[in-house]
Amino acid sequence: MDSVPHIPNRSIMTDTARIPDKPALEGLESKWGGVWETEGTYRFEREGATRECIYSIDTPPPTASGSLHIGHVFSFTHTDLVARFQRMRGKHVFYPMGWDDNGLPTERRVQNYYGVRCDPSLPYEPDFAPPFQGGEGKSVKAADQKPISRRNFIELCEQLTVEDEQQFEALFRQLGLSVDWTQTYRTIADEALFTSQLAFLRNVERGEAYQALAPTLWDVTFRTAVAQAELEDREQPGHYHRVAFAKPDGGHVEIETSRPELIPACVALVAHPDDERYQPLFGTTVTTPVFGVEVPVVAHHLAQKDKGTGIAMICTFGDVTDVVWWRELDLPNRAIIGFDGRIVAEAPDAITSEAGREAYAKLAGKTPFSAKQAVVELLRESGDLLADPKAITHPVKFFEKGERPLEIVSTRQWYIVNGARDAALKSKLLDRGREIDWHPDFMRVRYENWVGGLSGDWLISRQRFFGVPIPVWYPIDAEGNPVFDEPIVATREMLPVDPSSTAAPGYEESQRDQPNGFVGEHDVMDTWATSSLTPQLAAGWERDPELFDLLFPYSLRPQGQDIIRTWLFSTVLRAELEHDVAPWANAAVSGFIVDPDRKKMSKSKGNVVTPAGLLEQHGADAVRYWAASSRLGTDAAFDPQSPTQVKIGRRLAIKVLNAAKFILGFEGAADAPVTVAVDRSMLAGLATVVEHATRALESYDHARALEVSETFFWTFCDDYLELVKERAYGEASPEQASAVAALKTALSVLLRLFAPVIPYAAEEAWSWSNDGSVHRASWPAVEELAARGDAGVELLELASLALTGIRRAKTDAKASQKTPVTSAVIAAPAAATALLASAEGDLRAVGRIADLGFAEAEELAVRDIVLDTPQEEARA
User: Annotated motif 'KMSKS' region: location in the chain (predicted)?
Assistant: First the structure.
């Protein structure tokens, strides 16, 4: 296999001038960050690369609107651990960074930051200066925001996202992400527009993208359609109203509804086909109260026999179930809620009675809340309200970024097929999910549940401003009406294109908005319609075919669990439609960050921690250690007031520096023969650590790799280093050379094991005795230790226990660890004493024991210790 040409990492005799008098973590980020950038340490080596030697990462592009939070540090560190490991394994690592800068979050931030709002009807002002510069503008109410042209608004979006991206990059660099910063992209740049629009045109050509007039979830605040993946349920207070519908025989049917204001939009009553109470009514009609419209009673399996009275209104449209009933039962559309969220002025044609139309006139122009109050009063007056409203709480659908309940309105929108109505496509998408190796594996179920639960195709059009324009125009007939059923699509040569400023193919600009002319599509694509193409975008699809063939399908998609339904699914969908493959071999899904009360951290909850202060106070290595300690898919609690794991990580990084300084102070070479049994035992134990850590990282279990490496490191420092330091300090001899060689060999291996987690400390310590970067050094292999560490690991374990016993005996005698010992006995099983005999010299030296004997016993213990201090002589 071809591999990245590693920077030389040959061991050299230590140049003590390289080692600082007092090693410290402070300043390492700026020191090594500059070196890595200058030397191109993390640069993707395209020349000479083959698919077999490339490891490509489909990096999540963070939304460039506001500030990064601790969750970004958490999940991006997980990705970086993989990138660093694979690079040290000899892979050409493609690790780009993207910025997701189009979409609603950016628009909201621009509105708040500059105190403006977009009004497309206004002309462009070339020298426009926003009312606020550099402030959050949050004190400016929406009504007080200055209206500006779409072009002016987009310019402010461009300006602010660039500023945010620079701050994000600086923080990611400080964190030590080994990103190739020459491989960056923006989801609003020309390359992204080209890729997104070309993929859309291909979807149109294959019949996978279409427009339709259909019920659409609508956010009345943002005046935009909302996709299924952007929904969330929130518990809201409400009331059930028991209402009477008149039967032809003079009786009535009772229903309970939380939305009586939609009675004028009622098109049927529905009950479960097995509900014996209502089976006699199926096929008959009833009359709506107040508005006097005759509607059918129908059966459908989604009706709930145990909810309310067991029979419900079907209205156009109260919720997504109404949409299902309306579509499957082929019912009429009598929608009464407009794009502004208010009751439309014109009553449905079905309301024909004078009394019904007068009643409707009292609702026109009202909000649903006010209309509800008006209808309740009308029901009281007519006698059709059968009981006082009953207070309830119930789940209501919201746009995940919205503050008002969603309504369902009829709009013309663009869709991409996603398997909701195509069993064959749904089956393929499930198969693609099974082809991907998920880490952890149980996250696959979330993907499959999402695919299985899809109820409609993917709505991709948005009524926003800062986004990828949909590359479509519509002809205008002789009467001046747009012909939406005959869209004019852009040609590839026109891309990227904005239909609002470029004439349609075959037309002149003077024909815009004129009879027999054209009108440009004003909608933009959902931001996920671009983010779903990050593999294609970063790899140069249709722009750099050679690079794309090298990288795609990618090796890894790392991401959060909350966007499996959006980013992960939509990327699988686009790869299936365009390439007929899964877009990556692996998916690594990080857990959430939760606060000390185990609540997910989010801006809406006000419990988000920003990482800048944490990095400044504790250092990047310490923060990375905290992130690396959590397994994929596992939520991690974080308390900014007491960041215990961060402090442990800082302690580890400092200990690595100090241990390296201490070891490199010994005279001798790392490649000298290792002849002493306890030295070989230590290296054998380290070989096992390398084996386990490597296997764990290959399985995307970075937490396990860190655990085994760190556990060995503390044993190495506390026991082995203490055990052999007297010998290492001694005069030149084969035994002294063996200790120094084992110590320096172990240091080299440990620095490489720790390099992905604490890259700054590892690089600093490595530089004291090696040329080149530890991050371009080879990942440690069992083979480089096996020949030098063929002794059993039991010897070091036993020696460590014996050393602990000697220390405890001195402590129990209230003596200093430096106190000389006249004599002592190590008692242990026969096999153990035979092994320990080979470490007798080191045990005598570290314990300052003149005469060390051995005896048989069931368990290892240090006894009969005689301290060589007359005033403190004692036995233990």
Answer: 600-604
For residue 440, is the peptide bond before it cis, meaning its omega torsion is within 30 degrees of 0? Answer: yes
Mean pLDDT to the nearest integer, 207-216: 88
Secondary structure letter of residue 732 according to DSSP:
S
Taking only the tens place, the pLDDT of each residue in 148-201 is 888 898 889 888 888 888 989 999 999 999 999 999 999 989 999 999 999 999
Going by C-alpha positions, the residue among 502, 479, 477, 478 that lies closest to residue 489 is 502
Tokens of 55: 């490891």
Mean pLDDT, rounded, of the chain: 90
502 and 465 Cβ atoms separated by less than 8 Å: no
349-386 burial, b if ≥16 CB within 10 A, otherwise e? ebbeeeebeebbeebeebbbeebbebbbebbeeeebbe
Mean pLDDT of 744-764: 98
Q: Which long-range contacts (CB under 8 A, 24 or more apart) does 833-839 make?
A: 835/677, 835/792, 835/794, 835/795, 835/798, 836/795, 836/798, 836/799, 836/802, 838/676, 838/677, 838/678, 838/795, 839/677, 839/678, 839/723, 839/795, 839/798, 839/799, 839/802
Overall residue count recorded for the chain in this entry: 876
In the predicted structure, residue 454 carries a pLDDT above the cut 80: yes
| CA separation for the pair 255, 253 (Å, rounded) | 7
Give the model confidence (pLDDT) of 472-487 as tens digits: 999 999 999 899 999 9
Residues 610-641 have pLDDT tens digits of 788 899 999 999 999 999 999 999 998 888 88
pLDDT in tens, 88-101: 999 999 999 999 98
Highest mean pLDDT, choosing among 115-124, 480-489, 695-704, 800-809 = 695-704
How far apart are the C-alpha atoms of 637 and 634, rounded to whole Å? 10
Tell me the one-letter amino acid at 294: E
Look-up of token digits 């960041």: 643
Q: What is the C-alpha to C-alpha distance for residues 688 and 705, in angstroms, rounded to an integer?
A: 12
Count CB atoms within 10 A of the CB of residue 135. 13
Distance CA 831, CA 820 (A): 28
How does 10-31 read in b/e, with b if 16+ C-beta sit within 10 Å? Answer: eeeebeeeebeeebebeebbee
- Residue 308 region, left (φ>0) first, then alpha (ψ -120 to 50), else beta? left
**Which residue, among 678, 702, 717, has the nearest Cα to 626 in the 3D structure?**
702
**Cβ–Cβ < 8 Å for 464, 457:** no
Residue 874 has a pLDDT of 45
Q: One-letter amino acid identity for 66?
A: G
CB burial class (10 A; 0-12, 13-18, 19+) of residue 635?
middle
What are the tokens at 148? 């500006």
SS (H, E, C) 134-175: CCCCCCCCHHHCEEECHHHHHHHHHHHHHHHHHHHHHHHHHH
What is the average per-residue pLDDT within 789-818?
Answer: 86
pLDDT: is 753 or 318 the higher one?
Answer: 753
One-letter amino acid of 265: A
Flag whether 603 is marked binding: yes
Both structure tokens of 85: 């490991």
**Poorest-confidence range of 16-30, 210-224, 433-447, 715-729?**
210-224
pTM, entire model: 0.82
Residue ranges with strand state E in 206-301: 209-219, 224-225, 231-246, 252-257, 266-271, 285-287, 294-299
Question: Which pLDDT value is given to residue 370?
Answer: 96
Q: What is the 3-state secondary structure (H, E, C) of 9-77?
A: CCECCCCHHHCCCCCCCCCHHHHHHHHHHHHCCCCCCCCCCCHHHEEEECCCCCECCCCCCHHHHHHHH
DSSP-derived secondary structure for 409-465 = EEEEEEEE--SSS-HHHHHHHHHHHHHSEEESTTHHHHHHHHHHT--S-EE-EES-S
d(CA 222, CA 341) in angstroms, rounded, equals 11
d(CA 578, CA 557): 18
